[in-house]
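Running this now, will post back.
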Amino acid sequence: MPENYDALRWHRRPLCHSYNRIVRIGCILLALAALAACNRGNQSKDAIRQGVLDHLSGRSLNLASMDVDVSSVQFSGDKADATVLFVPKGGNPSQGMTLHYQMQQKSGRWEVVGVQDAGHAGNVNPGSANPHEGAPDAGAPHGAMPSPEDLPPAKK
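Update: finished.
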């Protein structure tokens, strides 16, 4: 063995360890970048729209006859509030209906956890007169049966 064998061995050792350290750190940084990219990829209107469509696919609705547009989304971590406009295909947006969805991200997908009806897209603006005021039975709920006294006499 050469006399300076120990000196040569000591000289190579840090180089080998520093190379492995660089590879490990590089792999960790690459994995973190990939995870961050995957997390941000699901925070989009398209991901929310797909979650709403998945929620509605179990219902007896003809989704092919509707245009579904996510008009606004507010993300807050793994939760989101979305405003969705449903319009008949080829129809005027004023013929549509707006719903507010509360969404939560589970297993990388957005799922509906709550729904609020915002009404029809052609709603009356706040402060405007309600066109239904003063109508007979304006206070009666929709679909309520009239009382027998309000019915006309039966013909015999």
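The chain has a mean pLDDT of 75. More later if anyone needs it.
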